[in-house]
Records
---
Amino acid sequence: MFTPEAKAELRRQFGLDDPPLVQYVKYIGSLAKFDLGLSFSTRRPVINELKERLPNTMVLFLSSFVLTTMIGISVGVYTASKRGTFADSFVTGAGLFAYAVPSFWIQLLLLMLFGYYIPILPIHGTMSAPPPDGFFLQLLDRIHHLILPAGSNVVIAFGSWALYTRNTMLEALGQDYIVTARAKGLHEKTVLRHHALRSVLPPIVTLIFSALPGMVAGAVITETIFSWHGVGKYLLDAVMQQDYPAAQGAFYLIALAVVTCNLAADVVYGIVDPRIRVGEGGAK
Amino acid sequence: MSKNKTQTKIGAPTFWEQYRRKPLGMVGLAIVSLYVFVAIFAPYLTPYTPKEILLADRIAAPAWFRSILPKFADAPSSVRISLGSQEWTVSEAVGGGLAPAESDDSPLSVIQFEPFVRDEVVSEEEIDVLEVEEYPKEPEQGVVTLSYTLPYNYSAPKTFGLTFNYWIEAPSDSKTELEFVIETPEGKRYSLWGKSASGQLANQPARIDSRDLSLKQRLGMTIFDDPAPRIFSSRGDYSLLLIARTIPGEEPTRVYISDPEFYIPGTVHGLLGADHMGADLWTQLVYGTRISLSIGLSAAAISVAVGTAVGIISGYLGGVVDEFIMRIVDVLMAIPDLPILIILGALLGKSVWNIVLLISAFAWMGTARLVRSQTLSLRERVFVEAAKASGASDAYVMIIHILPNVLPLVFAGMVLRIPSAILTEAALSFLGLGDPRVATWGRMLHNARGFGAFTTLAWWWLVPPGLAITFLSLAFVFIGNTVNEILNPRYRERS
């Protein structure tokens, strides 16, 4: 298939002439410089392709994350104050459901419902092609494309946050200082928000940050389903095409994100719970 | 085995006596039993196998849609007729007929024509004239028409087809013509296929497919026309006619028609419809139970066994070993599991066994941490000290004294590990990294997404596999939580 000269040239191009150890050291060195090699399929530097996609992934990830936690915690606080009502059992069910249901299936169902049955949302991509004129319209177009992927992430994940918030809130609401606050005649809303929620926020925030890596990993599926032009889809496409440099590069980026999230979780844990920093065991 | 041990340990109310008082636990157990039943008796629950394709039209809807959705009120289900020699009736026979069948259900029909008997005295000259067919005593054309009455009382199908093999044994001076015609209840005739031959013809297949361009041309339609809905536009008795005409030679002419099969793929099919290949979705769902259950159970068992062993060793030996193992656990836990499974799954090749190993390889760390922390407290207990004092080896203490005491924890952990293994397998199959040879729920969803469930709005293809996964996972969560409540009340918040 190849002439010996062409083979030698290819080997030289991809640095395969060196002994494995040298290759490995070179590889690690170039990883540190974000030099991820050339993609087999496009012959472009992998880092350039990732740079194109990273902003899209960040937008999807951050919007899903912020919406999920905000909605989840609000719903949790609300249901904690309405114990035994329908809303309460709904949240309990949603939390359990979130654990047992395949997330990609929910996304598929939502895609079919809002993309095909009631075609009000775009079914793939990050923006229309060609994009509309004007900055404002482009922004709207991007948001329009974001609704389904980010919204489906919220639907999948908010239940477990709501359930966790509800449970910790209920625990806190049984404490003496809540009774005191109520006895002082404070408004129930004030008691919930300023007394109970404040005390349960640290464990919740910690849990949120420790769940970040899982959400990063979930990006692969979300991006694949909604054909989102991001890093996760890039990883799967590269794997399917046996484009190893591209797959390695995408995985490297994802692993980096996960490690960063883990680090952030540790740091945030120290910030929200001062006892950890001081290093003394509290009563609770 | 673990159950017996815990029973004796708990004492008064046995494990089962406590378990059966928990409604959620019992619901979980009932659901899992149902799945196990389905997995074991899969071949008896469906008449098809997952590999059978072309059972119906592509993306056929469930058959029971007929009674609830007006759109499908009289949609056809698959019609598949093997036209053996017994099925045909001879509606026209001039100069020949249908030869008696070798057996009652012979798939081979033989049309036999009498030879043409010439005058006894024929001059050389006359024969020459005969050969250009201008001889006054021309042999009479023989015609045999085989017909089959097909009652059709549905709305128009999307396609239909007929396949058979045929060959002709005839003298070289004969001419034979074969034709396949469908006659509608109104009496309109569509000639769909024809073949003429002089003399012998070796065995060859005939494939009539309503989507063929040549068929459309033969019927005088454009490429955008669809013959199937036109031909089967009304209800009533259609006639499938196989017509053989021959100008006989001096020897008898025989036309052999073997294994003819007429096929109208149904636009509704079975319990759950059919996929893009016309394979039965209910069958895939039923057989998928086997894969999901076995992958879930074995991956959970392997990962928990590994986690338990590592946890006990790490916790009991302590020191450098513990430090080393725990750092490995930290590193593995930091790796995003789905991306690494995708990469390794693609590298190692798509097989069920690989998926089990991969899922287990990245799922044992949680158990290891839990078991290690438990072991750390167990090894300081008096009974361990006593065992050591009486000269027991480390291995002996770990297996005989530590292991039984962490088992209750491990058992509940294993049950709770099953749903995540099932979900991970489904996700990998959905992404196209599953074993392509077996039907799994994830693969059904993969196919549904890739082969047109969305554009055809075939929600019945999308909903059942997801529900199956959800209910099975929920059942194991119920069981695991109940077991935890009974065996490890203090650890309920974990996992």
---
Amino acid sequence: MPGLSGRMSTVIKAKISKLLDRAEDPAETLEYSYQKQIELLQNVKKGIADVVTSKKRLQLQEQKLRDQVVKLDTQARQALAAGNEDLARTALERKNVAQTELQSLDSQIAQLEQQQEQMTASEQKLRAKIEQFRSRKEVIKAQYSAAEAQVKISEAATGVGEEMADVGLAMQRALDKTENMKARADAVQELEAAGTFEDLTQLGSGEDDIDRQLRELSSGSEVDAELAKMKAELGSGSSPSAGELGAGAPAGEPAQAEQAGPSQGQAP
Amino acid sequence: MIVRIATEGQYELTESDAEALNDLDNQAVGASEQADAEQFNTTFKELIDFVRKHGTPVAEDRLEPSDVILPPPDVSFEEARAEFSGEGLIPG
């Protein structure tokens, strides 16, 4: 085209045109193969459903992780109150990993949300263009000579065809991204299955492989800082009555209460 | 002049915008040829922003093909490079 020799756009334009060529004459395709349009629109709908499913799955995982973060925090406090700093550290390390996962899940969910909106808008736009083409065609046929009408309809068809190709491209990209996120979600689930975010109540004193890996994963200084903060919150006087943990009381509830009670006051 | 940002939609720009657009386009391709990812990302973002800022969205009832088609706004540097040297974004 005159005035614009931009190479980037030329490459993309040429490729989109090629996609259109593959559909033979776009005017004919649009005029006769109603089936094709319905198929494309259905594919977009299916694509949107896929995105929604992935989003729901990530949201479920997100909720689970949130629960784990609360639980691990509580357990760290309990461990510390009981004077078991090692166990508290392990709990905080796990909490750290869970929080990192949580952050990346959050941004993925936001991305999927955006994709869902974009695809829904694309679908509506394409539907509107196809309908517009249908009614426009009749008007053109009535107003122009056969030869002129042919040209005009063909032009309009190329416009709709371009939209169809573009929606196809948008959908393919959205689905590719969703695939990547699925892979990521699977990885988180594997971590879960390996017990990374497990309850610490069943944890023995020995450290296992997961713990060593965790130690490498989580940034030590962050855990140190949090541990120090927790210590300060609990006050310096910790009662060292062996590392027995409750099943994870809600954060903030004093863990010492049950343990401190019966040790005194057994007057005969 | 009608410019499509792939996966986003069409915009109408004036003919006088063409030169600036062309200039940015050439810079972006140049950056990708020189394997300068940072430069590419900056220029490409500028290009997309230019179209969004100077163009008016084309109405849904218009059925015209685009004069210019730009890659999707979220195109990665790797994808863009592949685009100019092989299969790339749109196979074929």
